[in-house]
Amino acid sequence: MKIAIGAANGLAFLHEEASRPVIFPDFKPSKILLDMDYNAKLWDFGLAREIHAPTKVVARKGYEAPEYQMTGHITSESNVYSFGIVLLEILTGRRALDETMPAEEQNLIEWLRPHLRNKANFHYLMDPRLEGQYPTKCAHRTMRIATHCLRLDPKARPLMSEVVHKLKYLHDEMIGDLGPKTSYGVGPSNHASANKYALGRCSSPLRCFQGSPQQEYYPLPLPPAPPNPSLASSSKS
C-alpha cells in the first residue's frame, strides 16, 4: 500500500500541483524507484509534456489506455488508467502481460474479468505469496479503486489526487490509526475537473468510490479489453 500511495502521489503532483502540470509519458512499474524505506519515487519522465498539450509516445503494451489505441496520445486520464493496471499488478502479483503464463492467463485484465463477478473468487485473485495474510476488506476496496481507474470513459476515471485520498484512508484504516475524516483532503487543484467526486463533502471517503450497498466490498466489473491490442507497440525498456 505504501508503494501504491507513493506512486499515486507522484502522478497527482505532476498532474495537479506542479507549477506547470505535466503528463507522465509511459507509466509502468519500471518507472517507480524505491529507497531503503520503500518510499516510491517516479523517474525517467524526460518526455513529459504539459498537461494541455497532446502527447504522442509509444506506450508500453499492457499499460496503455483504450483511447490510446485510437489516438496514439497520452493524457492525464491515460496515466490514471496505467496506474490502475499497476495497482492490479501489486494486488495480484501478476504482470500486465506475461507470455510465460497459459494463453488464457497472459493478459491480466482478461484473466481478472470473469472472476470479479463472483465475490467468492476474490481470494484466488490475490498474490499467492501473501498466503491469505491480508486485510480482506481493504483488499476489496483497493481492487475497487483499480477498476475505477480502468473505466472505459476517460472522463469517468478519478483524478490521481482522489486516488491518493482514498488509498491513504484505506491505509490508515488498515493499520487501525484512522484520523479525522478530513485529514487527507486533497485541497484546491488547478485541474479543470478537480474534486468531481466532492471528497470534502463525503461523510466517508470510502463512499465516494462505492456502488450500491450490496456492492460495498465488491470490486466493480472491469470494462472490455481495448480493441486491436496489436496497434500499440512496446517501448524500449
Give the SSE layout:
Layout lengths: L1 H16 L4 E2 L8 E3 L5 E3 L6 E2 L4 E2 L9 H6 L1 E2 L1 H17 L15 H9 L5 H4 L10 H14 L10 H15 L63
Antiparallel strand pairs: 1-4, 2-3, 5-6
Subcellular location: Cell membrane
Keywords: Kinase, Lipoprotein, Membrane, Serine/threonine-protein kinase, Transferase
Main location: membrane
What attributes characterize this protein structure?
Transferase(Phosphotransferase), domain 1, two-stranded antiparallel sheet, mainly alpha
Task: Walk me through what this model shows.
The chain has helices spanning 2-17, 66-71, 76-92, 108-116, 122-125, 136-149, 160-174, and strands at residues 22-23, 32-34, 40-42, 49-50, 55-56, 73-74. The chain is mainly α and 237 residues long. The chain has a domain at 2-53 and 74-184: Transferase(Phosphotransferase), domain 1 (Orthogonal Bundle). The protein has a two-stranded antiparallel ribbon. It has a two-stranded antiparallel sheet with strand order 2-3. It is globular, with a radius of gyration of 17 Å. Mean pLDDT is 75; it is low at 177-221 and 228-237.
CATH topology of the domain at 2-53 and 74-184: Transferase(Phosphotransferase), domain 1
Count, helices: 7
Lateral strand order in the biggest sheet: 1-4
Assigned CATH class of the domain at 2-53 and 74-184: Mainly Alpha
**Gyration radius, rounded:** 17 Å
Q: What is the general shape?
A: globular
Please summarize what this structure is.
The protein has 237 residues and is mainly alpha-helical. The chain is built from 7 helices and 6 strands, in the order αβββββαβααααα. α1 runs antiparallel to α3 (76-92), α1 (2-17) packs antiparallel against α7 and α6 (136-149) packs antiparallel against α7 (160-174).
